[in-house]
Amino acid sequence: MNNEKYIEVEISKTNNILKRKCKNSEFSRKLDEATGKNAWIIGFIADHQDRDIFQRDIEDMFSIRRSTVSSMLKLMEKKGLVIRESVSCDARLKKLSLTPRAWEIHKQMVENLRYNEQKLCRGLTEEEKTIFFSVLEKIRSNAIEEAE
């Protein structure tokens, strides 16, 4: 491999650093009931409170298999973070709602995310951030295409 850099390796290394940083943060220690993807699901539901959110929306948004999402939601329900409610148009569908406890976690998550974002983007121009997100989206799109 010499000095050659590979995008997959660099993304993986960066992901490991960010996970380690998150796991060791004071925020994470306070909110261990909403770790990992649970926190992202809480954020997704909160950000889309203007419409009904269903399990399929979570599957699509995070590219997670149905069985995995189902297990995650059952655990989140057990932890008192989400509520599944029937909808009038189709009794088989269960819309997802956040509990007051999850809303408090969401508020703290947003504060923590903004704080971390400031630190991670230190020294970056708006143009660099725009380019970064554009390139990352292309890489993600290529990865999804390759996985199908």
Question: Secondary-structure blueprint of this entry?
Answer:
Elements: H1 7-23, H2 26-30, H3 37-47, H4 55-62, H5 66-78, E1 82-87, E2 90-98, H6 100-120, H7 126-147
Antiparallel strand pairs: 1-2
Helix pairs in contact: 3-6, 4-5
Looking at the overall shape, the CATH architecture is: Orthogonal Bundle
Gross geometry: globular
What is the count of β-strands? 2
- Report strand order across the widest sheet: 1-2
The biggest sheet, with number of strands, parallel, antiparallel or mixed sense and barrel status, is: 2 strands, antiparallel
The tally of domains stands at: 1
Tally of alpha and pi helices:
7
CATH class categorisation: Mainly Alpha
By CATH's scheme, which homologous superfamily applies?
A: Winged helix-like DNA-binding domain superfamily/Winged helix DNA-binding domain
The rounded Rg comes to: 18 Å
Output mean pLDDT: 88
Q: How large a portion of the residues is in β-strands, by DSSP E?
A: 5-15%
Give a description of the structure.
The chain is mainly α and 148 residues long. The protein has a single domain, classed as Arc Repressor Mutant, subunit A (Orthogonal Bundle), CATH 1.10.10.10. Helix content is 66%, strand content 10%. It has 7 helices and 2 strands, in the order αααααββαα. The chain has helices spanning 7-23, 26-30, 37-47, 55-62, 66-78, 100-120, 126-147; strands spanning 82-87, 90-98. The protein has a two-stranded antiparallel sheet. A hairpin with a 2-residue loop joins strand 1 and strand 2. It is globular.
